[in-house]
Design goal:
The complex is a heterodimer of chains A (about 230) and B (about 210).
Chain A lengths: L16 H9 L4 H11 L3 H19 L10 H10 L21 H8 L7 E4 L2 E5 L9 E7 L8 E3 L3 E7 L2 E2 L4 E2 L4 E4 L8 E2 L5 E7 L3 E3 L2 H10 L2
Antiparallel strand pairs in A: 1-2, 2-3, 3-10, 4-11, 5-8, 5-10, 6-7, 6-9
Helix pairs in contact in A: 1-3, 2-5
Chain B lengths: L1 H5 L11 H26 L2 H21 L4 H18 L10 H18 L22 H4 L2 H13 L3 H13 L3 H8 L3 H18 L6
Helix pairs in contact in B: 2-3, 2-7, 3-4, 4-5, 7-10, 8-10, 9-10
Classes of the chains: A alpha+beta (about 230), B mainly alpha (about 210).
The structure holds zinc ion.
Zinc ion binds next to helix 3 of chain A.
Chain lengths: ~230, ~210
């Protein structure tokens, strides 16, 4: 099964100003930042608001208290420029065809993975872990969920973002389609159900590990490793 | 700001209001910086790069120190940022961003790469965000890029203290809105609304209407 992005109308669910500001400042954990960056490639409105938030950074840089550099800093910088560029991190492989249509920031994340196969997690639920070492304590995973499947009930601490890449789901908040970003508030318990005819593919990124609240969730937690 | 003030001849500006005067000077300087970036991109002009270096390298280093970087690491990163400015100058589009905003994003990404030893997810030019259908006028149709920086600067300077504080913590203390809420002992919603209000003020200063 191949991922294919279907360009529909502009997204209905967006990143909050707080999220875009934290992204622009460089203050988000990488997984959550990945979801925001990917959403801005699908949403002109959020791309624009992120650019305004980055203008704040530009303005603060303009007014930063200058700190003197070493006397030979310019010469050293020319030395760096003339030195051969540091070799980029080894590319494990190119993005496989089943993920080729992903937004750019996600392709970059997939590029860095040793293994990009969908892993069966539970009936109807497959995943690709984008941050296998769980550096920084958060997580970012691609999920592929069969129609009619419900993700187990879970609560969470901190930010949880879901970016829809294919298909759609409905939860207590509303209906989420391609390009939509679901930004959950702290301590919201939610239970998305896939309501599209095709599999739903989404990125779920969290600031902290998820806490599943139902018995099924608790049983599944080791499986999810979330 | 002090440096920019020294660079002008106050007599020459006559009776203009002081903030207008600063604005004019900053825009002149800004136009020069954008020109230097173009010269680096098109001709690999070392003198133009030296001028960019003189303006940005000490500010990048100062910004990094304010974020808590040790001076030696800040020095190393500032040089690395300037080397990236040289390499990427051809990607800078003055119609889309202020030069300082562009340098800021390079510094932000390299700092995170260095400190977290992982890449900060970012949008590359060919990722297509800017090509999406968008009914808003292009940024530089509303206000010219040089003017934009001045308007953002002034809007930030006039934010109420509680909104300025959340901006300060985001940009200088590396805290996401959730961490700021925890730190200030405030409900997350309060911090989010302060950030939203700050962003609304800045967008309003840029002449944008809220939907
Ligand atoms: Zn959006």
């Amino acid at each position: 099964m191949t991922y294919h992005s279907v360009k529909t109308s502009p997204p209905n669910h967006h990143a909050s100003d707080a999220l875009l500001l934290s992204y622009a400042a460089g203050a988000l954990p990488s997984g959550v930042a990945l979801a925001v960056a990917a959403h801005t490639t699908l949403c002109a409105d959020c791309a624009h608001r992120a650019a305004v938030a980055e203008d704040i950074g530009g303005s603060l840089l303009d007014r930063a208290e200058p700190a003197a550099l070493c006397p030979d800093a310019l010469a050293r910088t020319f030395g760096r420029i003339e030195a051969p560029e540091a070799t980029p991190p080894p590319r494990m492989h190119d993005v496989p065809p089943h993920l080729a249509g992903l937004p750019g920031p996600l392709r970059a994340a997939v590029n860095a993975l040793p293994d990009t196969r969908w892993r069966l997690l539970a009936p109807g639920i497959r995943q690709i872990d984008l941050n296998p070492g769980a550096r920084g304590g958060g997580s970012s995973r691609l999920f592929r969920i069969s129609p009619g499947t419900t993700l187990p009930h879970h609560g969470h601490a901190g930010i949880e973002l879901t970016l829809i890449l294919q298909g759609s789901f409905t939860d207590e908040v509303g209906r989420f389609q391609v390009g939509d970003l679901a930004e959950l508030e702290d301590d919201v318990v939610h239970q998305p159900i896939v309501d599209s005819a095709e599999d739903c593919i989404c990125l779920i990124a969290t600031e902290a590990p998820l806490r599943f609240s139902s018995l099924l969730g608790r049983l599944m937690q080791p499986l999810f490793g979330l | 700001m002090a440096v920019q003030l020294q660079a002008c001849d106050p007599v020459d500006r006559g009776a203009r209001k002081e903030d207008m005067m600063v604005g004019v000077m900053v825009e002149d300087e800004r136009a020069a910086l954008a020109g230097h970036l173009r010269a680096v991109a098109e001709r690999r002009d070392k003198a133009a790069f030296a001028a960019l270096f003189a303006f940005y390298a000490p500010r990048v280093k100062g910004y990094l120190i304010r974020q808590g970087c040790q001076p030696a690491q800040a020095e190393d990163l500032a040089q690395e940022v300037m080397a990236a400015v040289w390499r990427k100058a051809g990607l800078y589009d003055p119609a889309k961003a202020e030069a300082s905003t562009w340098v800021f994003t390079i510094a932000r990404n390299l700092r995170i790469d260095a400190i977290r030893r992982e890449r900060y997810p970012q949008v590359e030019l060919d990722d297509g965000a800017r090509e999406l259908p968008d009914d808003r006028p292009a940024a530089d149709d509303v206000v010219s890029t040089g003017q934009r920086a001045r308007l953002v600067q002034r809007a930030i300077a006039t934010l109420p203290p509680d909104q300025a504080e959340v901006i300060r913590q985001s940009f200088f203390q590396d805290k996401a809105h959730t961490a700021i809420a925890e730190d200030l002992g405030l409900p997350l919603g309060t911090v989010k609304s302060r950030m939203r209000l700050a962003m609304i003020k800045i967008r309003a200063a840029l002449g944008e209407q809220e939907p």
